[in-house]
Amino acid sequence: MSWTDERVELLKKMWGEGQSASQIAKELGGVTRNAVIGKVHRLGLSNRAGPGAAPAKPEPKPEPKPKAAAKPAEAEAAPAPEPKPASTPARKQIIPAGQPLPPQPSANEISPEALAKVSEVEKKAKKLSLMELTERTCKWPVGDPATDDFWFCGLPVKAGKPYCEAHVGVAFQPLSARRDRRR
DNA sequence: CCCTGATTCGC
DNA sequence: GCGAATCAGG
């Protein structure tokens, strides 16, 4: 297989959509993810940032002596940058039965970014049925189980987590921002 | 262990 | 230019 114009375009398209190299490779067929990555680099779009947008990070400083990052504890910082009201889509997510699927963002204050990412990811979701889930498919439930508008994300999970990157973000939101729970 | 992209280097 | 091997990370 060679990099025909069409294949390159598909590559660009998918890469632009944030698809992983392995997925792109699978889609193209006849190539490995390495080939895809290699091509991506040669095309100069290693960074998923469009041209002109990213000021990049020119770090030609021969004297690297910035600062050591100190972490007080764990949990990534979750600042609430945009006071975005964000409509409250009363999404009713009923979890099946005694399944340890703890989501349910509502209560906690999830960063708008995370939610946005989830919404975005739900478009790409594989929409798997319960039985199609595997050890490495995102088990985030979407929709109402009582209707046929119910499915699981199904995107590849990250590490040992039960969800994909995006859903991990909202599922395991470090409850640090609002921990003052005097009781 | 599964995955991700990044880089190298012989072809 | 290509991509397998390798590296570095989650």
TrEMBL record:
It comes from Pseudaestuariivita atlantica. It comes from the Bacteria. This is GcrA cell cycle regulator. InterPro entries: GcrA. Pfam families: GcrA. Residues 42-109 are annotated as: Disordered. Residues 67-79 have a biased composition (Low complexity).
